[in-house]
């Protein structure tokens, strides 16, 4: 009887770990596409968790609203973005920054991001040029 309880308890624990691992993996899985590809796919990616890459359009950032709004561009295809995340926006997030956003594209054609990763190439280019001169 004691062995059956131990066996049953072990099966429940292993099944729970497998379930949590699979569901956690599915939640973190997101496809990586550009803003241009996002617009081309349209309906087929609505409400699908995605990572979208693009460049922040000059002058489009509006931090006065909740959620913060801005546009991203890739090959002259512009996507409107609402940032609905809880994390602070990276210091490198500014006009013309390269960004990768995580979130979902809704049927109103707005990408609702909950994560932002940004880099500003010009910030690093000047350091690279200085290193070449020395």
Key features?
alpha/beta; OB fold (Dihydrolipoamide Acetyltransferase, E2P)
Describe the protein's architecture and organization.
There is one protein chain. The chain is of the alpha/beta class and 134 residues long. A hairpin with a 2-residue loop joins strand 3 (68-74) and strand 4 (77-83). The chain is elongated and about 70 Å long. It contains three helices and six strands, in the order αβαβββββα. It has one domain: OB fold (Dihydrolipoamide Acetyltransferase, E2P) (Beta Barrel).
Poorly predicted runs = none
Oligomer: single chain
How far the N terminus sits from the C terminus, by CA atoms, comes to 77 Å
Work out the radius of gyration: 21 Å
Total discrete domains: 1
Strand order of the largest sheet: 2-3-4-6-5
Structural class label: alpha/beta
Q: What value does the average pLDDT take?
A: 82
Strand content: 25-35%
* Main sheet attributes: strand count, strand direction, barrel closure: 5 strands, mixed, barrel
């Amino acid at each position: 009887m004691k062995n059956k309880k131990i066996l049953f308890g072990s099966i429940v624990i292993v099944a729970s770990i497998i379930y949590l691992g699979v569901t956690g993996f599915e939640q973190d899985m997101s496809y990586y596409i550009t803003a241009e590809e996002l617009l081309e796919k349209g309906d087929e990616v609505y409400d699908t968790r995605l990572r979208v890459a693009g460049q922040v359009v000059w002058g489009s950032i509006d931090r006065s609203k909740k959620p913060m709004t801005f546009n991203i561009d890739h090959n002259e295809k512009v996507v409107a973005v609402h940032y609905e995340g809880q994390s602070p926006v990276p210091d490198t997030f500014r006009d013309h920054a390269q960004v990768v956003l995580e979130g979902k594209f809704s049927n109103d054609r707005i990408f609702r991001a909950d994560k932002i990763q940004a880099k500003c190439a010009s910030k690093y280019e000047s350091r690279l040029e200085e290193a070449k001169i020395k």
